[in-house]
Design a protein that fits this description.
Cofactor (chain B): siroheme; [4Fe-4S] cluster; [2Fe-2S] cluster; FAD
Strand order of the largest sheet of chain A: 2-3-4-8
Shape of chain A: globular
Radius of gyration of chain B: 33 Å
Mean pLDDT of chain A: 88
Bound molecules: siroheme, flavin-adenine dinucleotide, iron/sulfur cluster, FE2/S2 (inorganic) cluster
Radius of gyration of chain A: 14 Å
Number of helices of chain B: 29
Order of helices and strands of chain A: EEEEEEEEEE
Oligomer: heterodimer
Low-confidence stretches of chain B: 1-5, 402-412
Largest sheet of chain B: 5 strands, parallel
CATH architecture of one domain in chain B: 3-Layer(bba) Sandwich
Strand order of the largest sheet of chain B: 3-2-1-7-19
Structural class of chain B: alpha/beta
Distance between the termini of chain A: 19 Å
Strand content of chain A: 35-45%
Pfam families (chain B): Fer2_BFD, NIR_SIR, NIR_SIR_ferr, Pyr_redox_2, Rubredoxin_C
Keywords (chain B): 2Fe-2S, 4Fe-4S, FAD, Flavoprotein, Heme, Iron, Iron-sulfur, Metal-binding, Nitrate assimilation, Oxidoreductase
Mean pLDDT of chain B: 91
Largest sheet of chain A: 4 strands, antiparallel
GO molecular function (chain B): 2 iron, 2 sulfur cluster binding; 4 iron, 4 sulfur cluster binding; flavin adenine dinucleotide binding; heme binding; metal ion binding; NADP binding; nitrite reductase activity
InterPro entries (chain B): BFD-like_2Fe2S-bd_dom, BFD-like_2Fe2S-bd_dom_sf, FAD/NAD-bd_sf, FAD/NAD-binding_dom, FAD/NAD-linked_Rdtase_dimer_sf, NasD-like, NiRdtase/SiRdtase_haem-b_fer, Nit/Sulf_reduc_fer-like_dom_sf
CATH class of one domain in chain B: Alpha Beta
Number of helices of chain A: 0
């Protein structure tokens, strides 16, 4: 039936490199990601691109609670599932994050599955 | 699932497109007694084919036109095979076979294979560079071609061809529509509307070659152009075949199912084979194969009910209407559109406003309509024509008004929706009925078109139904519609408090951080949103200039990074150039930096300074260090520029040294945070070459002093500045400016420019504080000095602070292996 994606967990740095309340751009292989650390310490990884037709990066958005506000057009995006909040619509791709010791790892699909 | 399969019927859908999936959606609403499997040749889940036009012109991306993502299939237990073509059906054995050699059994089978572009049977039509406009792959092919080659020819001046042409123009191609007839969209429009359409599209950059019969696609394996019957040629490296579509019947024919123009179906969408059905563009019903979505949904509804065993009226065919999805072009047509003997013609045409409206009657019956320019009446007309309604005086009055104008008011629209039945479709693209919409307004309390779009899908695709949805809101909510859309009191959705209450609470309760304000004042979102956080941060800094630690994370990106974000995520850098004055040395430095960092553009701004555009974020601190110039705050709610004219130092009319005064003011008030951006100008005489009349603070020199103007705005809503006062000395000028600025800082709402602020507080109050009460002015001046003492150059801060540099400006580069 439906293929579960094969994930590859890759390290992107130490926890201290992700200050709370901010987003940070992470480039890994061909991926351009935005990694956000909320004030409660949780980490989220999203594709670094707003779903707005005209695009633009997300990493520079304001982080409030578990939402990020797109820096170009102020869309509100749920960090948990990448869902754009009403009245706008769309979805940003999200990636699982794991913390092992102090290292941050991101689950990326194997190459074939872009 | 396997254990249950004995009891459950197996339903297979061939064709993962709009008609097929819509049918499944309707089936799922009625029953869950099927195990469903879907086979689609394209590698995508079901998407909105209609919106390919938007994908082509670049206003939407593929993932935004997906209608049912893979989760949807999974959530509904549907087995999805994308990228899989079904090559044969065996109706006797009730099996299907895929091109990969797989085979599956069915109890019921739906064929929904859509159409294919009609390819002109001329020599050369199969070369590289010749494409149709049907699916995502075609879109990609065109977008790719637009990067390589310059000229495109679109064969066919119908809806599809025109939308393709508009997209290609948008992609920068020189595009010619080649049309066999002498008028565009000849199957939907009459001469007048087609003429208006052509003129508008020409204005938008599309070229036309009318009455041109293509006889050959030129080229040597790769298209280079077209040749026409009269022997002339047209150069084109991309040729789009948009001259029509043909039902995709290949599979049905290969499987021995009866085929005419399309797969022949009866009124319950049954084909000639038992338990095999067809819906959508691939089928032919009562001799008609449709090419628009609305009929497909009607067919799907009948088929879904039939399969679920629910009672349904037979499908009796559809009446179709058309809307062209090109911005700036509103055309509509339904029913009969070309007048013939026997028609009574109601027509209004206004070439000045570009409006055209025609309604055709047979006897009194409304049988067709064409609209151009204003399509507000489209939904109503579509309905009247569908129902074969009679024209009445009242209806005439509604449609054509008193005889003065074509456009109509809201009340007549309201009448149209009132008379609609609950199960009547409002949004043809998404199959949303009046009842669906009324329900979400009444039951779920939705109050805006956007909310309704999110919940029901109505207005989501072509947008043609938006006026109807608005009318429904109007009718259901009555006066409440306006009330509810009136602005709320709180500064954002997180609070009911307005700015005054917040500022008062910060002062009285001595609140010192954004989070504290939110906690104490009962914010509904514990961490606020992108509207309130920057506002609170501003108020705190304004009230506690020395104590408050600026909360950088609460600032919008531009102020957080001290550069202006651009649409592609790069930034712009505008250094200060006090009073618009520069020097060869400064210019040299700017030039060197621009070259060193490969800046995309060096531009002179409208604010008398230089902008370096397209800088990578990671380079910002280094650029600033190399420039060694202070930040121009071109991104901030703070003093932007002080424009100056040449003034008394050079100008034959100049009465005051405007340049010197401009520089002095800019140096004094730079870096001060304000409620909104703040712009100034200083002129040497009332000729006002530096435009004081549209500045927040504009100064005009005269013989013996200065005149001060305030509250001007040259932006969205141009506002002429008001004269505040005249002063005699430079010192007095500085004082009035300082007091004025501080008064604005203290009483302005966040994001309120001085033009709106002045209108709100009134110039008399400003004069009182700044001019008439010396003790108030003194205190204002003391406080502005306090705030000014805090200013540091943010660029210097960034390049000299390692952790700022790292946390804010650098990205993480990692390696997946
Ligand atoms: C660079 C510049 C255009 C240019 O190349 O000349 C510019 C560029 C932008 N302007 Fe402007 N404005 C520029 C002069 C102006 C002027 C003319 C002037 O200042 O003399 C005006 C009209 C005067 C006025 O503001 O009263 C102007 C009225 C606006 C407005 C409308 C403001 C309003 O209250 O109506 C906006 C939108 C806003 O602020 O919300 C805006 C916004 C913008 C932004 C910052 C858009 C944004 O929010 O990202 C633009 C940044 C582009 C970029 O990607 O870097 N810009 N903008 C000018 C910079 C001047 C400078 O040296 O600092
Ligand atoms: C650019 C464009 C703009 C349009 N604009 C409008 C508009 O504004 N308004 C409007 O009403 N209509 C519009 N249309 C028409 C509308 O998109 C179609 O009417 C609708 O998509 C038809 O639905 P369908 O399911 O019959 O066919 P499709 O949506 O084409 O779906 C058929 C699917 O079946 C698949 N398939 C075919 N054969 C096989 C096989 N053997 N095995 C497996 N899969 C197979 C195909 O790959 C395809 O994905 C537009 C069409 C295009 C191309
Ligand atoms: S405003 Fe007056 S002084 Fe300034 S340049 Fe124009 S004419 Fe000359
Ligand atoms: S009719 Fe096209 S979006 Fe509603």
């Amino acid at each position: 039936m439906i293929n579960r994606e094969q994930l590859n967990f890759a390290p992107i740095g130490g926890l201290s490199e992700f200050p709370r309340g901010l987003g940070r751009q992470v480039r890994i292989s061909d991926w351009d990601l935005a990694v956000f650390r909320t004030t409660d310490g949780a980490l989220y990884a999203l594709e670094n691109r707003t779903p707005h037709p005209k695009g633009g990066p997300l990493a520079e958005g304001i982080v409030s609670g578990h939402y990020v506000y797109c820096p170009l057009r102020d869309w509100k995006i749920d960090l948990e599932d990448g869902e754009v909040q009403e009245p706008d619509t769309g979805r940003v791709r999200t990636f699982p994050v794991r913390i092992e010791d102090e290292a941050v790892l991101i689950g990326l699909p194997s190459n074939s599955d872009r | 699932m396997a254990d249950l399969s004995n009891h459950r019927r197996k339903l297979i859908l061939i064709g993962n497109g709009m008609a097929g999936i819509n049918t499944l959606e309707q089936i799922l609403k009625l029953t869950n007694s099927f195990d469903i499997a879907v086979y689609g040749e394209e590698p995508y889940p079901n998407y909105n084919r209609i919106q390919l036009s938007y994908v082509l012109e670049g206003s939407k991306r593929i993932d935004e036109i997906i209608l049912n993502d893979r989760n949807w299939y999974e959530d509904n237990g549907i087995e999805l095979h994308t990228g899989t073509k079904v090559v044969r059906i065996d109706p006797d054995a009730k099996k299907i076979f895929t091109s990969e050699g797989d085979c599956a059994d069915y109890d019921a089978l739906i064929i929904a294979t859509g159409s294919k572009p009609f390819v002109l049977p001329v020599p050369g039509a199969t070369q590289q560079g010749v494409v149709g406009f049907r699916d995502i792959a075609d879109c990609h092919a065109m977008i790719e071609a637009s990067k390589r080659v310059k000229r495109a020819a679109v064969i066919g001046g119908g809806l599809l061809g025109l939308e393709a042409a508009k997209g290609l123009v948008q992609l920068g191609m020189e595009t010619t529509v080649v049309h066999l007839m002498d008028k565009l969209m000849e199957r939907q429009l009459d001469q007048a509307a087609a003429g208006m359409l052509k003129a508008e599209l020409e204005r938008q950059g599309i070229r036309f070659l009318m009455k041109a019969k293509t006889t050959e696609v030129l080229g040597d394996g790769e298209a280079t152009g077209l040749r026409f019957e009269d022997g002339t040629e047209l150069e084109a490296q991309l040729v789009v075949m948009a001259a029509g579509i043909v039902p995709n019947v290949e599979l049905a024919r290969a499987s021995g199912i009866e085929v005419g123009r399309g797969i022949v179906v009866d009124d319950f969408m049954r084909t000639s084979a038992p338990d095999v059905y067809a819906v959508g563009e691939c089928c032919e019903h009562r001799g008609i194969a449709y090419g628009l979505v609305a009929p497909l949904f009607e067919q799907g509804a009948v088929l879904a009910k039939h399969l679920a065993g629910a009672e349904t009226a037979p499908y009796a065919g559809s009446s179709v209407s058309t809307k062209l999805k090109i911005s700036g072009v509103d055309v509509f047509s339904a029913g009969e559109y070309e007048e013939e003997p026997g028609h009574r013609v109601l027509r209004r045409q206004d070439d000045w406003l570009g409006l055209y409206k025609k309604v055709l009657l047979r006897g009194n019956q409304i049988v067709g309509a064409v609209l151009y320019g204003d399509v507000t009446d489209a939904p109503q007309l579509a309905k009247l024509i569908r129902e074969g309604a009679e024209m009445t005086d009242e209806l005439y009055g509604r449609l054509f008004g008193s005889g003065q104008e074509c456009a109509g008011g809201a009340s007549k629209g309201a009448a149209a929706v009132l008379s609609m039945k609950d199960d009547e479709i409002v949004c043809g693209c998404n199959g949303v009925t009046k009842g669906d919409i009324v329900r979400v307004i009444q039951v779920d309390g939705l109050t805006t078109v956007d909310e309704i779009k999110v919940r029901t899908g109505a207005t989501r695709s072509c947008g043609g139904c938006k006026p109807l949805v608005e009318q429904l809101l109007q009718v259901v909510l009555g006066d409440g519609y306006r009330e509810r859309t009136a602005p709320k009191k709180g500064i954002c959705g997180c609070t009911t408090h307005d700015s005054e209450e917040i500022v008062a609470a910060i002062r009285e309760k001595r609140l010192t951080s954004v989070r504290e304000v939110m906690a104490v004042m009962g914010w509904s979102e514990p961490e606020g949103c992108s509207k309130c956080r920057p506002a609170l941060n501003y108020y705190l800094g304004m009230i506690w200039p020395t104590e408050h630690e600026d909360e950088r994370d609460s600032r919008f990106v531009n102020e957080r990074l001290h550069a202006n974000i651009q649409k592609d995520g790069t930034f712009s850098v505008i250094p200060r150039m006090y009073g618009g004055v520069t020097s060869p040395e400064q210019l040299r430095r700017i030039a060197e930096v621009a070259e060193k960092y490969n800046v995309k553009m060096v531009k002179v701004t409208g604010g008398q300074r230089i902008d370096l555009l397209g800088v990578e974020k990671k380079d910002l601190p280094a650029i600033w260090e190399d420039l060694d110039l202070p930040s121009g705050y071109g991104y901030a709610k703070a003093l932007r520029t002080v424009k100056t004219c040449v003034g008394a130092r050079f100008c034959r009319f100049g009465t005051q040294d405007s340049i010197a005064m401009g520089i002095r003011l800019e140096k004094k008030f730079e870096r001060l945070w304000m409620p909104a951006k703040f712009k100034m100008a200083v002129n040497g005489c009332p000729r006002n070459c530096a435009e004081s009349g549209t500045k927040d603070l504009g100064i005009v020199g005269n013989d013996g002093g200065w005149e001060i103007f305030v509250g001007g705005n040259g932006g969205i809503k141009t506002t002429v500045a008001a004269s505040l006062c005249k002063v005699k000395t430079d010192e007095e000028l500085m004082d009035v400016c300082g007091a004025f600025i501080q008064y604005y800082r203290e009483t302005g709402h966040y994001a309120e420019r001085t033009s709106e602020w002045l209108e709100r507080v009134g110039i008399d109050n400003v004069r009182d504080a700044v001019l008439h009460k010396p003790e108030v002015r003194k205190l204002l001046l003391d406080r502005v000095e306090l705030a000014l003492a805090e200013g540091k150059d943010p660029w210097r801060e960034a390049f000299s602070d390692e952790s700022l540099r790292r946390d804010y400006y650098q990205s993480v580069e990692a390696d997946a292996r």
